[in-house]
Here is the input.
Amino acid sequence: SGVPEDLEANMQVHPEHPERGTRNPRLEVEDNELQLYIDEEDMGDGFYRLKGVCNINISDASAEYVPGDHKDALEEDAEFIHWTPAYSDTATVRMPDGENLEGPIEPNQIEKGEVVQFERFGFVRCDSKENSLYYYAHQ
Here is the structure.
């Protein structure tokens, strides 16, 4: 809670290659609350930085906005965590063993046949844009 209405995301496409530019996923703020998904493994109590967005303090599975930038998070030795917007699409990733895994992904402009990286997961190839079907390539 306490999130400014004009909060924006600004994330590098590839942290080791700034020349590739940035991406700016749309953020939804309702009643001063940021609407997004965070992996439950990242939901322990403490001070965190939502990658490319803002600092938060999590307590009892509830997050509170903390003013400041990524430098403040570094000074506090905060863990930087990944997130996806609440309006995310659901993707299916077909693994080499035939298992299908599902999870949220940012709405995107990925074209059929394109290989992209799903953060914290690995590289996938888009097989069907309409069905959000991807094939796992490698980590």
DSSP finds one helix and 14 strands in the chain. The CA atoms of residues 117 and 123 lie 4 Å apart.
